[in-house]
Amino acid sequence: MGAQLRVYKRRIKSVTATKKITKAMEMIAASRIVKAQRQVAASKPYATELTRAVTAVATGSNTKHPLTTEVDSPARAAVLLITSDRGLAGGYSSNAIKAAERLTERLTGEGKEVDTYIVGRKGVSYYGFRGRKVADSWTGFTDSPTYADAKRVAGPLIESVVKETAEGGVDELHIVFTEFVSMMTQTPVDNRLLPLSLAADSAEPVGKSELLPLFDFEPSAEDVLDALLPRYVESRIYNALLQSAASEHAARRRAMKSATDNAEELIKSLTRLANAARQADITQEISEIVGGASALADATAGSDK
To answer: Where are the alpha helices (DSSP H) in the chain?
Structure first.
């Protein structure tokens, strides 16, 4: 039984060390969520006003721009998938990947070819392991993205939309990310960024007759769209990166809390088993002592006779 007790003690020591790690990761994730939430809130006013400006130009003019004009028969689509660079976040990355898979199946069912762009090592590993082609990928900043990262991601996507389909361009741009709803709820969503859907993206829809008297486009509406729409895409991607970062931290905090709670339960269970083994050792030693004393007493009594 002494050997069994040593095994329990080693396991308790190992689980206790693991518990310290998961607890530390839980606290780190909790502290980062606050910062990520503030960044999401800070990015919304700029994105909202920029969307209103783009909507005003697109609605208040007759300009046909490749980033706002619907294609009659779209043949290709680009999908940007945002996942995590690190694991230990529960089903955060896998849920986003599943949402991207569903979107890809839907677009393929509509007869469109899909070019996949990925942010995060988890998504890159998933597609690489299965030998699937990826148009481009970015890693190393998912837990703390900056606007420069969003701009770097947006560049190739905008270029693919501007190109003709025959030259490798796409007719649509979709983004799959995890929306931060609350500390307990993070939902994978897929949004179409381009062509710009005026009905969906306009916060306060207004008619063309109302917009025309309010805006004068210089040098032209097309030039204004050329300047605004790339920034519109960058801001939307930046907001999606921030939402995903907040969701990742929340998912990791929840996963680490669950791991910490499980470690505590395991330690309690192992402690009870160790106590039982120790008690069995003590009982056995007492029995051996009593038995030895009794045998010695019997031997002494026999010799006296």
So the answer is: 2-59, 92-109, 121-129, 147-162, 198-201, 208-211, 221-304
